[in-house]
Design goal:
Blueprint: H1 2-20, H2 23-39, E1 47-52, H3 59-74, E2 78-82, H4 89-95, E3 100-101, E4 114-118, E5 124-129, H5 134-138, H6 142-155, E6 158-162, H7 171-176, E7 181-187, H8 193-201, E8 210-216, H9 224-230
Parallel strand pairs: 1-6, 1-7, 2-5, 2-6, 7-8
Antiparallel strand pairs: 3-4, 4-5
């Protein structure tokens, strides 16, 4: 299992590197960020949970792409949070350009612990949990999560959280209740309606926080009437 996971991470890193260097990807991140800003209210929303129904739908690609794009384009302080319970793909990607550990939070402040890193982009930082599996049991502690979210909100202008698949973990739905907005990533060519319906039912408590959907992996044009409905 470990060998398969390592191979998956290696393949993903190579695909992301090739994709992120293209002008098309940069234009899509520009359009996506513009669409996000156009939908935000005046309440100062700036923390985003990026999730999908199941694996391989592209939410990690969107999280990385948005985080790096927003940091470079706005000059604001941006944090990428890896809340996945398996592996550390985002950390591996960012580590290739250099990660510098920051001063760690005192371990007795929280029942879960995390590390923050500086990246090669001066105003972009990365946070990972030391024991990602602990998040699965931590979800019962809403008060402590609220303290954590308040802490990072004070430190950063924009926060992008990469969540594990909604149908495979209760971490995403729990985090959705503590962050400002939810962006749902859909592998449009392969994901079917019953699966999406089930995934969205897990987010019922946070329906008003869902900002919209990113249709990823399309191999056909989206009809205009469908596009209007999604918007």
């Amino acid at each position: 299992m470990t060998a398969q996971l390592d191979q998956f991470h290696h393949d993903f890193k190579e695909r992301f590197r090739r994709l992120s260097e293209t002008d098309l990807f940069r234009r899509e991140m520009d359009m996506l960020w513009s669409a996000i800003l156009s939908r935000l209210g005046k309440e100062g929303e700036r923390s985003f949970l990026i999730c999908s129904a199941s694996v391989d739908e592209g939410n990690t690609t969107v999280t990385m792409g948005l985080g790096k794009f927003v940091a470079k384009q706005t000059g604001k302080n941006v944090l990428i949070v890896d809340a996945h319970c398996e592996g550390n793909v985002i950390g591996d990607l960012l580590a290739d350009d250099g990660l510098v550990p920051l001063i760690e939070e005192p371990e007795d402040r929280y029942s879960f612990t995390f590390d923050e890193y500086e990246t090669s982009i001066p105003n972009l930082r990365y946070l990972t949990f030391r024991n990602p599996r602990a998040l699965e049991t931590f979800v019962v502690n809403s008060e402590e999560m609220a303290i954590f979210v308040n802490l990072i909100n004070k430190r950063y202008d924009y926060i992008f959280v990469d969540a594990p698949p909604v149908l495979a973990s209760n971490v995403g739905p729990f985090l959705a209740r503590h962050l400002d907005k939810v962006i749902f990533v859909i592998a449009a060519s392969i994901r079917r309606y019953p699966v999406l319906k089930e995934a969205l039912s897990r987010l019922d408590d946070s329906r008003d926080r869902i900002l919209g959907a990113v249709l990823n992996m399309r191999d056909y044009p989206v009809p205009e009437y469908v596009f209007r409905f999604i918007r």
